[in-house]
Amino acid sequence: MSGFRHLDDRVVHQGHVWHVAVARFESPDAEVFERDIVRSPGAVAALPLLFDAEGNPSVVFVSQYRPPFDDQVLEIPAGMRDVADEPTAVTAARELVEEVGLRAGRLEPLVDFYPSAGMTDSVLSLYLATDLVAVERDTHGPEEAHSQVVHLPLDTAIEMVLAGEIRDAKTIIGLLLVERQLARADRADRPAP
């Protein structure tokens, strides 16, 4: 394959969910080098999609404080895979209830992606959530307790991505994939010329 070999990890910080390791590797020409890696159990996210009576799509977001940026971030519901051996769809369903108070009748896998391949081994599993029913939110931690649920038309959310107002990677990926999926379905429904 690539010719690189992972030699070992030395844990330099053990956190609640993540740990930081200094990992040693060997290149194809036998050069040994080190890289700092955040080892993670991974994460999930779900894009909650609703349709009004006319069939116009909208998305439900959570706006919450994110300490690394010291700012409110508008994003789709998401969370760490912090329950051992829990299937990603179950984690995604739980996060929908916790963060935006919605239960999904259907969760469709969209994509698994590397949110930051240069620094972490985390994989994020992204779902499309439909057939949504409102339930009581089950917030955890101060960030979620002080968060706000935001409901926006899909077109507005796409414009916010293009304007740089939505900056969260999982949210951008989810919005663009769902917009493309809906456009493809719309073209398939049109009568042939």
Describe the structure.
It is a single chain. The protein is of the alpha+beta class. The chain is built from four helices and ten strands; from the N terminus they run βββββββαββαβαα. Strands 4, 5, 6, 7, 8, 9 and 10 form a seven-stranded mixed β-sheet that branches. A three-stranded antiparallel β-sheet has the order 1-2-3, with no helix packed on it. Helix 3 (154-162) packs across helix 4. It is globular, with a radius of gyration of 19 Å.
Mean pLDDT metric:
94
Give me the number of helical elements.
4
Task: Please mark out the parts with pLDDT under 50 across 5 or more consecutive residues, or reply none.
Answer: none
Terminal CA distance: 47 Å
The major sheet is characterized as: 7 strands, mixed
Q: In what range is the share of β-strand residues? A: 35-45%
Radius of gyration: 19 Å
- Reading the helices and strands in chain order gives EEEEEEEHEEHEHH
Q: Please state the structural category.
A: alpha+beta
Shape category: globular
Keyphrases for this structure?
42% strand, three-stranded antiparallel beta sheet, 4 helices, 10 strands, seven-stranded mixed beta sheet, alpha+beta, 193 residues
Show the helix and strand layout.
Elements (H helix, E strand, L loop, with lengths): L4 E10 L4 E8 L5 E8 L3 E9 L5 E10 L4 E5 L2 E3 L7 H13 L1 E12 L10 E11 L6 H5 L2 E6 H9 L6 H21 L4
Parallel strand pairs: 4-9
Antiparallel strand pairs: 1-2, 2-3, 4-5, 4-7, 5-6, 5-10, 8-9
Helix pairs in contact: 3-4
